[in-house]
Automatic annotation (TrEMBL):
Record keyword Acetylation present: no
Top-rank lineage group of the source organism: Eukaryota
Keywords: Membrane, Transmembrane, Transmembrane helix
Bilayer-spanning residue ranges: 93-114, 143-163, 175-194, 214-236, 257-274, 286-306
This protein's record includes keyword rRNA processing: no
Name this protein carries in UniProt: (rape) hypothetical protein
Organism: Brassica napus (Rape)
């Protein structure tokens, strides 16, 4: 039935007029002063699937596609969003997790597995070393005495390595201060949290405490001479001191944990020497000190004495000093 019906449709217009879109529709379809930029080249700061909308050289919105999810982040309040994102996404937490695991394992070993057969003797040794007990005729082991006092110099060495060129977002000085009491067990959490590169140190900071002391050749020289004297004092002892010290190491928790502390501080020192050397741009001239830094305490102390001043290498000039003088 419907097939037999013919409906004539006529049109008096030869062509349809061009309709002008309204301003509202035009603004929705294509915003003014907005350009669509899509990066197709593998630029270092843009991913291939990242789209940027810019308005008069100002970045408004970053649209990023990750798999099935779209992440939009506003960058109006961030002066350099690409740099911040790269730093956050580029952090490798593998070394941090391993160092935290090492720290936890060491604490568990010291409190639960280390030998603890002579707690009364440990307390007696501690009082003697702290000069809390007078002369009672007992002769202290010279190796133990040298080890005790050199453990008080290790935090000075690490302070000279960490505070100028080993800084991070996490403050280093609390860990350095606690290392005077806890040794490497207080420094390991900072090693795990450390995130390079370290912020630069200005010349005005280098002239203030504590950088003026830590960068001083006098401090490095006194540390080296004191450590060398303590090592010689321990080595020239009686022949039976080493055998006695080994027996203490197997029975005493105090001496066992302290000896382990000394070994770990010596093991981590070459890395921080290398970090300080590269930060001062002195690797080409001072690379021969890297194998020397493996020598416990004396190697890092010798490097601290011979390294160049930070103000001569990488310390930036202050803005006040760099500004031109109008009187000239």
């Amino acid at each position: 039935m419907w097939e037999s019906i013919n409906l004539p449709i006529s049109c008096n217009f030869s062509s349809f007029p061009h309709l002008k879109p309204s301003r509202k529709a035009q603004s929705l379809s294509q915003p003014r002063n907005l350009t669509l930029v899509q990066s197709r080249a593998p630029l270092p700061f843009l991913k291939p699937d990242r789209i940027l909308l810019r308005n008069n050289n100002s970045q408004f919105l970053k649209h990023e596609k990750k798999g099935l999810f779209h992440v939009c982040r506003s960058s109006l309040n961030n002066p350099d969003p690409d740099k911040t994102e790269i730093q956050d996404e580029g952090r490798d937490w593998t070394s941090s997790v391993l160092l935290f695991a090492l720290w936890g394992a060491l604490l568990y070993y010291c409190f639960n597995l280390a030998p603890d057969q002579t707690p009364t003797q440990d307390l007696y040794f501690l009082k003697k070393l702290l000069n809390l007990k007078g002369d009672d005729g007992f002769r202290m082991n010279q190796i133990l005495v040298g080890l005790w006092y050199i453990m008080g110099l290790w935090p000075v060495v690490y302070a000279m390595l960490l505070l100028p060129t080993g800084r991070s977002k996490t403050q280093a000085w609390p860990f350095v201060v606690f290392s005077f009491f806890g040794g490497v067990y207080a420094l390991l959490p900072y090693f795990a949290l450390w995130n390079p590169p370290s912020p630069p140190v200005s010349e005005s900071e280098l002239r203030q405490w504590p950088f003026n002391v830590l960068e001083s050749k006098v401090t490095a020289g006194v540390t080296l001479v004191a450590g060398l004297g303590l090592i010689l004092y321990a080595l020239v002892g009686n022949a039976g001191d080493w055998k006695e010290f080994y027996q203490y190491f197997r029975e005493s928790k105090f001496i066992h944990v302290t000896s382990l502390d000394f070994c770990l501080l010596s093991a981590f020192a070459p890395f921080w020497v290398y970090n300080d050397m590269t930060a001062r741009k002195w690797f080409d001239k001072g690379r021969w000190l890297l194998p020397v830094s493996v020598v416990p305490f004396l190697g890092p102390s010798l490097y601290l004495l011979l390294r160049p001043a930070l103000s001569e290498t990488t310390a930036p000039t202050d803005s006040s000093a760099s500004s031109s003088d109008p009187s000239q």
